[in-house]
Specification:
- The protein is of the alpha/beta class.
- The protein has 7 helices and 19 strands.
- It starts with a helix and ends in a 9-residue tail after the last helix.
């Protein structure tokens, strides 16, 4: 929506292809307190404000149940196809499909998402001051986030299904040296319990070695068992890191000229609303410049010449989503 705001301001006709209501992961977040200018705001309210702002500058929102592919054609244009068999033709595309946290798939997880269950400690840790929380996972992310949570929570339980972590040695040392963290080995979460009005109250645990089952009182559950970038819509080769996140240049352009990436889909240090908006600002301004050059070269020569020239070097610019 930030990308659409900026391309709209650049007087580019902008189509926003959104799966369902605008907002993405914001719609799965109850409150945010880390967006500048909004000390505390509901996720869906922030999404509504973002969408309204983009529409103010002419962005057209097309509701779909999904984009099936984004393909660069021989003439240099992209064809973005939806599952309704609609095709949007444009000289540039900004992909902000984000990623999807891998879920435990246990009863109560979805019911208490945003009401105790979270997939981002940096986003939500401040809501758990002086409370007891649990973290599930055994990799770098789980250990980093468990350590971070101790800045706010009085107690952090780190639950892992095995008897050793996959995390780096230095991160494991931080866990074992932190008096606020207690590791629960060889254990899985079977259920999230709570009250629909008051939120999460605790977890039902199952020890895989002893077969013991018990209830663990906790106000929050942070799940870090993986995050999957939604790259499936991008057709063709693109450079990515070992985790599958798309690599871009400083202008947010992927290895496919004219295809820009912003937000959680991009390889970067953090995945926050503010960094996603920053990426999108850069991508939109870069896309505007790319399209101006694309149109100029299209007027000057054949489609073949346009394609060869644009692919010869990345241009810091570009714009129709």
């Amino acid at each position: 929506m930030t990308a659409a705001l900026y391309t709209g301001r650049a007087m580019l006709r902008t189509a926003v292809l959104e799966r369902g209501f605008p907002g993405g992961e914001l719609l799965n977040t109850e409150y945010l307190d880390d967006v500048i200018g909004f000390p505390k705001i509901l996720g869906y309210e922030l999404a509504e404000k973002f969408a309204a702002h983009a529409k103010q500058f002419g962005a057209e929102f097309f509701e779909t149940t999904g984009v099936t592919s984004v393909t660069k054609m021989d003439d240099g244009y992209f064809h973005t196809e939806t599952d309704k068999a609609e095709i949007f033709r444009s000289p540039a595309v900004i992909v902000t499909a984000g990623g999807t946290p891998i879920k435990l798939g246990v009863p109560g997880e979805l019911e208490y998402a945003g009401k105790g269950v979270s997939y981002c400690a940096i986003c939500d840790a401040a809501f758990f001051k002086q409370q007891i929380v649990a973290v599930v996972g055994g990799g770098d992310a789980a250990c980093e986030e468990a350590d971070f949570l101790t800045r706010y929570a009085t107690k952090v339980y780190l639950i892992h299904r095995r008897h050793e972590f996959r995390a780096s040695t230095i991160l494991q040392k931080h866990i074992f040296d932190n008096p606020k963290i207690e590791v629960i080995w060889d254990t899985i979460v079977e259920r999230v319990d709570g009250d629909p009005q008051e939120g999460m109250k605790g977890l039902r645990l199952h020890n895989l070695v002893t077969n013991e089952r018990k209830f663990l009182a906790a106000n929050g559950l942070f799940i870090f068992i993986g995050f999957r970038p939604n790259t499936g819509v991008i057709a063709g080769h693109f450079d990515h890191d070992v985790m599958g996140y798309v690599l871009t240049d400083a202008a947010m352009m992927s290895s496919i000229p004219g295809l820009f990436i912003a937000g959680d889909l991009r390889a970067q240090l953090t995945r926050q609303v503010t960094t996603a908006s920053g990426d999108a600002t850069t991508a939109a301004i870069a896309a505007d410049k790319y399209i101006s050059r694309f149109k100029e070269m299209e007027r000057e020569g054949s489609n073949e010449a346009v394609r060869e020239a644009l692919e010869a070097s990345h241009i810091s610019g570009g714009g129709y989503t």
